[in-house]
Each structure stands twice: as structure tokens, then as C-alpha cells.
Design goal:
There is one protein chain. The chain folds into two domains: 95 residues, Immunoglobulin-like (Sandwich), CATH 2.60.40; 83 residues, no CATH class. The chain is 37% helix and 22% strand. The protein has four helices and seven strands, in the order βββββββαααα. The strands form two sheets. The chain has a four-stranded antiparallel sheet with strand order 4-3-6-7. β6 and β7 form a beta hairpin. α1 runs parallel beside α3, α2 runs antiparallel to α3 and α2 packs across α4. The chain is elongated. 25% of the residues are buried.
């Protein structure tokens, strides 16, 4: 007979439109859990929503299921720190909490910049400069995720903002076809 051990995992959906949460709990068979499980999701800029949760399944949430937009009108979910609390009755004693940093929109922008880099017609020094810049941006994105994973929300938000600012400047500058950073730092 197993004891109740609640756990959830946020799984990649590879879409800015969805948030995937799967149940990784161990449920006792005697007595079985018969309460209606729920998940509480704190969405950056939109407050907290309490929703039904299907055990032993991947639960996929969209802007409409989260109550951000009207039904059937799905928009990209905001990036930022999400707090999730999965519970079964009684909720005060049987729950698990997770905090994650969602960076899907920033990652999509980064991916688009990376693809533009591969299609650019630049000389080798300029391509190298662009690679250095993109690697630096990726370093800030990974740092933001690491900071959020270690409960350093201020640092996470600072690193996220820096990555977003650098990425915007990179895209505005024709994907960095200047070569200055490479020439200054590596030549």
C-alpha cells in the first residue's frame, strides 16, 4: 500500500499558446483518493486561477482555459514566474507547489533571430560576431531560468529583461552584421 505522494511536472509543449502540467503523483489504492483534484495557477499579470485537474494525465492549459481570454480565442501565454499548487482534499494538508519561469515567448523570439542568422549573407567575422551575441543572449536566458529555479526571482527578472533587451537590439541591428564585438573581444 503506497502513501499519497503528490507531484506535478511542467512539461514542454513547444508552443507559446499552451502550458502543460502532468501528474507525477503516487496515489494509494486503499483507500483511493476520491476528491476532485484541483490546480491553482498564479499567472504573471493575471492573478490566480483555480481549475480542475485530471490525475495521471497531461493537463494542457491555454489562455482561454486559464480565463485570460474568451473561450476559443487563444493568445500566447505571458512569460514570467508561474506558481502552481496541485491539491486533493483536504487541500490544506494534501498539496504540492512548484514555481517555474516560463520563457517560451522569449525563446520563440530567440529562435527566430537564430534562423535569420543562418540565412544572412555576411562574411565570416560578421557571422562569428552574431554567434557570439546570440550565445550571450542564450546565456542570459539560461541564467534567468536558473535563478528562478533557485527562488531568486529578482535576479531572474533582471536576467530575463537583459536577454530580451539584447535580443531586441540584435534584431533591430539587422541581426548584428557589424562584427564589432568579435573584433574587440576575439581578434
Amino acid at each position: 500500500m503506497a502513501n499519497l505522494q503528490l507531484d506535478i511536472l511542467v512539461v514542454p509543449t513547444y508552443s507559446v499558446l499552451t502550458l502543460g502540467v502532468t501528474d507525477a503523483s503516487v496515489y494509494p489504492t486503499n483507500p483511493p483518493v476520491v476528491s476532485a483534484p484541483s490546480i491553482e495557477i498564479e499567472i504573471p499579470g493575471f492573478g490566480t486561477k483555480i481549475l480542475p485537474f485530471v490525475p495521471d494525465k497531461v493537463n494542457v492549459f491555454t489562455s482561454s482555459t486559464l480565463g485570460i481570454t474568451d473561450a476559443g480565442c487563444n493568445q500566447p501565454l505571458p512569460d514570467g514566474v508561474y506558481r502552481l499548487k496541485y491539491s486533493v482534499a483536504p487541500a490544506y494538508t494534501n498539496y504540492v507547489e512548484k514555481t517555474i519561469l516560463r520563457v517560451d515567448r522569449l525563446q520563440e523570439k530567440f529562435d527566430n533571430a537564430f534562423l535569420q542568422l543562418n540565412m544572412m549573407v555576411c562574411d565570416m567575422a560578421l557571422k562569428t560576431q552574431s554567434s557570439v551575441t546570440l550565445n550571450t543572449i542564450n546565456f542570459f536566458i539560461q541564467g534567468a531560468i536558473a535563478a528562478a529555479n533557485n527562488c531568486a526571482e529578482y535576479e531572474s527578472n533582471t536576467l530575463y529583461a537583459q536577454a530580451d533587451n539584447m535580443l531586441n537590439n540584435f534584431l533591430k541591428s539587422n541581426c548584428g552584421c557589424s562584427g564589432n564585438n568579435y573584433l574587440i573581444n576575439f581578434y
